[in-house]
Design a protein that fits this description.
The complex is a heterotrimer of chains A (about 325), B (about 500) and C (about 350). By secondary structure, chain A is of the alpha/beta class. In chain A, about 45% of the residues lie in helices and about 20% in strands. In chain B, the strands form 5 sheets. In chain B, strands 6-9-10-3-11-12 form a 6-stranded mixed β-sheet, sandwiched between helices. Chain B has a 6-stranded mixed β-sheet with strand order 18-19-20-15-21-22, with helices on both faces. A 4-stranded antiparallel β-sheet of chain B has the order 2-1-4-5, with helices on one face. Classes of the chains: A alpha/beta (about 325), B alpha/beta (about 500), C mainly alpha (about 350).
């Protein structure tokens, strides 16, 4: 009796505390007051803690500076917090910016807010992942299916087009996670019949979890020739796992995704064969540009493919590649 | 006799309450001073000052003729003042030895010397004649043995002054005897004992002197040779109370049978228990601790599983498999442990009164109809004469007697016709007991039927029309009040359950 | 039964519920949860060994042990807190903050390796101390105090790191940092595992042989009684939370060493895994009861289970379901055990 009462009090208090935190995250900096001289674009991202989003932010800020507009960049603490992101979207609409840039965590939940933005006459452009709505004018993103396929083509090349491989994914829900996996799997199935994908598991992009998954896969499949990590955390986790097992660099070919210091180091040392990089800075730049164009009455392209590249030890120094890598 | 402790002019006030006003008493070496007073008379506040939990506002404490400052439990311990609190103050997950020496563990740097600890505990237990094993977990001990642990702990401080707050509260007769032997040997060794009790019969047994407090004030002290229980009670409550009273005119012997129990057994204790309860009757249940009285009540209301019982309520055969069935049939059970099982102490009086009958005060959607409920609470508070500033007062702020009345109000609000009281006056002071007794009389006069379980024989005799005596899980006798006496009840209560009448 | 003897087992209501008066039985019962947990561990090991030949290999077993290290170290520290009847939600992100601070000391301030590591661990102790102060002196409920600290630590880790991982690679004074977790003092066994077991021994000694351990149990068993016995419970509670903070600090060093970097976004959620390990190991959330051995076994059960399911290529979604079910079964068994004890009265 006494205990259950205690626990229910705790739960209630926790709920309140979390609610408070959720609210306070909603309104960073008073914006709109800059007057009507400076244009203001509110960007709502899927997250902010990950390096990838930091690079998008860098690109967005660079382009904003060039165009002389003001941008804010915010996102929920975890890429699972769909509701927190919707609150941010709502708050952004309430602030009446000149345009909104949005990366949907959930393609359906955002539809009513898209209509609300339209009703408030705020143009919306999207980046990275879209909403199932006709309101947004444009989307700047990587073709994740294509990127996954490119990873598969390179994996096949490295392991001699035959053998067992595994995938350490970062999400089985999130669209980038799903598309990078499916692009890879489809390419292997279609064009590389001698390669067998023996296992797909998910480590939430957590380095430690991904490392443990990689080790378990190698233990369960001693003939494993390659591992593919679908984001930075997954790929670095694979590298850590393989290193901890003390395997000779290259015994298991590792194909990663995105960049970051650890992957770059791993490619340089030969532990990782190579990785796909997107162009997050480009995504940021193109999003702000598209928003700017929309404010000025120009119609931005419906889909702006910001591109993706395979990089490895050989081409990393290439200025074109070096420009899209982040540390 | 040399004077050990002299306390004078002690005052203590809390916001809005003057708990103690100019209180005094003296304690000599090797004597037992019994401190009596109703709840709220200031006994515990006074003891908390002596044991360093409260600090006094005014007054002086002389220990061995020297003024002392007691500014914390540690200071009291250093001075040789030990207290055994009424509420169990043990750590159930630790052993006997670990409990006794908590805070004073023999150690080597940060490490404990467990063997030395156990050795000292064994030594202490042997010296004091307390039969306990130092390595037993306290949670595995009976309440009585746990009490012994408290005593051993208090003695381990080489206490000059030992304060015992209702030590026999949970003890059986034989355990009480053991305790009194222990007190006698402590007296012989020169320890001064301050003994707080509600049990009048203990007073004459062990007191060398009795000091009476009332409403935070010193009333007077009686020496052993002038000790007389009615006088003490009068001093306590400030009016005359008839200690030898018997129940008022009993209901008709031919009144309807409200509850009939046959063949009630449980796996562990009860054997073939059967009895009848009539309308307008108080049926007393007497017996020693462990005789099975509470078990009978719990089995009847379906709180514990039972075997083979045939129960009739108002002539109809019923099946009771859990307490909600019992409540639906109008049987209310008032646990002996009000604080743990009977009340939501942190909630207000209104909530507690209506708790068992919330369904009557809610509409079909479950929303509370607050006004009629409040009115009902107010009516019950008035009719039971519950002393509370309002029905929104937090229940824990009420005195023990008034808390008990709140529990009674709860079952009356539920329209229960059969009420089972388990130790209805435990922890309630003498004046308030009389109130509860009157209330029980009124209830049966109004047509309710009551089963009353009590360990206090005078109480059983004072209230019960008929008395069921239990021993070893069986009923050994059913006595009419007129033929019953304390001696007779004790006789049946100490028969082994196998002796048939 | 003879009602006159004082030795008869009468029901006694204690913090644990109603128990009977048979010391040997109750002693055995105290060990059951632990042996139950141990039996579960053995069953899991045997099951997975038969289910997949890749499971019971030296490298996989050391892999399991390595994956237990971080959660295990956190769980050891939080065992103390839970035995006092408290809870510490700040250990996950607290660990992150200590990892970030270690990196800041070594990479940004160029502190010598040893100084940086000790500095990071002390940051952990500071977090614990603040928790203890808030709980013991300011009387905040542990759940709330450490929930606040959880968010503060998470935020500070992000702010201080600039929302970027801090890498140890290529930093001259960080040479050998990754040896802390991944070096092999004993051939084939990563040091992180050695650290886990060494800390388990230290924690065991503290809990069973020192005053701190005694007061940890005493406070969890009956705090007011402990205070009235003249024990400065405020001081000891602060020490308990500080000790938990020290363990958090060590976990921070180990994870940073293993990853070769301080990852500011990692660590949230680790506290729940650590608490789960403690509970599976038979420590009561109500306080007063628990053991280091149990916690170690609890942490191993979690990692064996997850590793085994991974080896068997069970889908990630189902892995979560199984782990959740195991936690429920463990806690249910514990409550069943207590209810049985109550019935025997």
């Amino acid at each position: 009796m006494k205990t259950s009462k205690k626990i229910s009090v705790l739960v209630a208090t926790a709920a309140v505390a979390i609610a408070l935190v959720g609210c306070s995250a909603g309104a960073p900096g008073s914006s709109g007051e800059a007057g009507n001289k400076q244009l203001y674009i509110a960007l709502i991202s899927k997250g902010f803690q990950h390096q990838f989003w930091q690079a998008v932010k860098t690109g967005a800020e660079a382009r904003a500076a060039k165009l002389g507009v003001k941008v804010t960049f915010e996102g929920p603490a975890a890429e699972t917090e769909v509701d927190a992101q919707l609150q941010m979207f709502q708050a952004a609409i309430d602030k009446k910016p000149d345009a909104i840039g949005y990366a949907a965590l959930d393609p359906k939940a955002c539809i009513p807010l898209m209509d609300a933005a339209k009703a408030a006459n705020i143009p919306v452009v999207e980046f990275d992942a879209g909403c199932d709505s006709k309101v947004p004018l444009s989307i700047s993103k990587t073709d994740s299916l294509g990127a996954g396929a490119l990873a598969a083509v390179n994996m096949a090349k490295i392991i001699g087009d035959s053998g067992e491989i595994g995938i350490v994914g970062h999400s089985q829900i999130n669209s980038t996670g799903v598309e990078r996996r499916d692009g890879f799997v489809n390419e292997i199935k279609k064009n590389h019949p001698n390669i067998k994908i023996v296992d797909i598991q998910y480590g939430d992009g957590d380095h430690l979890k991904s490392a443990d998954i990689a080790k378990a896969m190698i233990a369960a499949h001693p003939n494993l020739k390659g591992l593919y990590g679908t984001n930075e955390g997954s790929a670095v986790g694979i590298v850590d796992g393989v290193t901890e097992l003390g395997l000779k660099p290259g015994k298991v070919a590792i194909v990663g995704f995105d960049s970051g210091q650890s992957q770059i180091d791993a490619i340089n040392s030969g532990v990782m064969a190579g990785a796909i990089t997107q162009n997050p800075i480009g995504i940021g730049e193109q999003t702000v540009q598209a928003a700017y164009d929309a404010i000025k009455g120009k119609t931005p392209a419906k889909i702006i493919d910001t591109g993706f590249f395979w990089y490895d030890k050989a081409n990393m120094a290439d200025p074109k590649i070096a420009a899209v890598l982040y540390k | 006799m040399t004077q050990l402790l002299k306390v004078s002019g002690i005052s203590k006030s809390f916001p809005g309450v003057q708990a103690l006003k100019d209180v005094q008493f003296e304690l000599n070496r090797g004597e037992v001073l019994t401190l009596v007073g109703e709840n709220g008379a200031g006994k515990s506040s006074l003891m908390k000052i002596l044991s360093g939990i409260y600090t006094r506002d005014a007054g002086s404490i002389l220990l061995d003729g020297e003024e002392v400052v007691i500014d914390g439990p540690k200071a009291a311990q250093r001075l040789g003042i030990s207290i055994i609190h009424q509420e169990m103050n043990l750590m159930p997950h630790l052993t006997v030895a670990q409990n006794i020496f908590v805070g004073r563990e023999p150690r080597f740097g940060p490490f404990m010397r467990e063997r030395e600890l156990n050795r000292r505990a064994d030594e202490l237990l042997k010296e004091t004649g307390i039969h306990l094993k130092s390595r037993d977990l306290v949670s595995s001990l009976t309440v009585a043995k746990q009490q012994m642990v408290e005593i051993a702990k208090a003695l381990s401080f080489n206490a000059k002054v030992l304060i015992m707050d209702e030590p026999t509260y949970a003890l059986t007769e034989s355990e009480t005897d053991t305790l009194f032997h222990l007190i006698a040997s402590l007296k012989a060794s020169g320890t001064g004992i301050i003994y707080i009790s509600h049990r009048m019969e203990e007073l004459s047994r062990i007191s060398d002197r009795v000091t009476v407090l009332r409403d935070g004030q010193y009333i007077g002290t009686l020496e052993k040779d002038e000790l007389d229980i009615p006088t003490v009670i009068e001093m306590m409550v400030g009016r005359h109370i008839d200690a030898g009273a018997r129940p008022t005119a009993r209901g008709s012997e031919n009144a309807d049978v409200m509850l009939k129990v046959e063949g009630l057994s449980t796996r562990s204790l009860l054997k073939n228990v059967g009895f009848e309860l009539r309308r307008g009757e108080i049926l007393g249940f007497a017996g020693l601790m462990g005789a099975g009285r509470t078990e009978v009540a719990r089995a009847i209301i379906g709180a514990d599983p039972s075997e083979g019982a045939i129960i009739h309520v108002e002539g109809k055969k019923v099946k009771i498999s859990n307490p909600s069935d019992a409540v639906a049939l109008g049987i209310g059970y008032l646990s002996e442990d009000r604080k743990q099982f009977g009340l939501l102490l942190e909630q207000d009086v209104n909530t507690n009164v209506l708790l068992a009958s919330l369904g009557d005060h809610a509409n079909s959607l479950g929303f509370m109809k607050t006004e009629p409920g409040k009115q009902k609470s107010r009516d019950l508070v008035t009719s039971l004469r519950i002393k509370t500033p309002s029905i929104f007062t937090t229940t824990k702020n009420l005195s023990g007697g008034n808390q008990q009345k709140v529990v009674i109000a709860k079952w009356l609000a539920r329209d229960c016709d059969i009420l089972i009281f388990d130790e209805p006056t435990r922890g309630i002071d003498v004046g308030a007991k009389e109130e509860i007794y009157r209330l029980l009389d009124q209830l049966v006069a109004g047509g309710k039927s009551i089963i009353m379980i009590s360990s206090e024989l005078p109480e059983v005799l004072r209230l019960s029309h008929r008395i069921v005596v239990m021993a070893g899980g069986r009923i050994t006798a059913v006595l009419d009040n007129e033929e019953a006496s304390q001696a007779k009840i004790m006789d049946y209560a100490t028969r082994s359950g196998d002796d048939k009448e | 039964m003879n009602p006159n003897t004082a030795t008869k087992p009468v029901k006694a209501i204690t913090a644990e519920g109603v128990v009977t008066g048979r010391p040997v039985v109750s002693f055995l019962r105290a060990k059951i949860q632990q042996s139950l947990a141990f039996a579960t561990l053995v069953v899991l090991l045997v099951f997975f060994s038969f289910a997949n030949s890749a499971f019971f290999t030296f490298s996989n077993i050391t892999g399991i042990l390595l994956s237990t290290a971080v959660i295990g170290i956190l769980a050891l520290g939080t065992t103390f807190v839970i035995i006092t009847g408290g809870i510490d939600l700040s250990i996950g992100t607290g660990m992150t903050l200590t990892a970030v601070m270690t990196a800041v000391f070594i990479v940004n301030f160029h502190a010598p390796l040893v100084v940086g590591v000790i500095g990071g661990i002390l940051v952990g102790a500071l977090i614990g101390f603040i928790n203890g102060f808030n709980i013991a002196v300011l009387k905040l409920p542990p759940f709330i105090a450490t929930l606040g600290m959880m968010l503060i630590a998470q935020g500070l880790a992000l702010v201080i790191s600039g929302v970027r991982p801090i890498y140890f690679s290529g930093v001259p004074n960080a040479t050998g940092f990754n040896q802390i977790a991944l070096g092999t003092l004993f051939p084939g066994i990563p040091n992180a595992v050695v650290i886990l077991f060494a800390l388990a021994i230290v924690a065991y000694i503290i809990l069973s042989k020192t005053l701190l351990g005694r007061y940890t149990f005493a406070i969890g068993s009956n705090e007011e009684a402990t205070r009235l016995s003249g024990v400065d419970t405020r001081k000891w509670k602060i020490i308990v939370y500080t000790v938990a903070g020290l363990f958090t600090g060590v976990a921070g060093t180990v994870i940073a060493s293993r990853l070769g970097s301080a990852q500011p976004q990692l660590g949230a959620g680790y506290e729940l895994q650590a608490i789960a390990a403690v509970i599976i190991g038979g420590t009561s959330l109500l306080g007063g009861r628990g053991s280091i051995m149990g916690t170690l076994i609890g942490a191993l059960i979690m990692s064996v289970l997850i590793n085994g399911l991974r080896i068997m290529s069970i889908q990630t979604e189902w892995q979560n379901v199984v782990v959740g079910a195991v936690i429920l079964v463990a806690v249910f068994t514990d409550s069943l055990r207590q209810r049985r004890a109550a019935f025997r009265g």
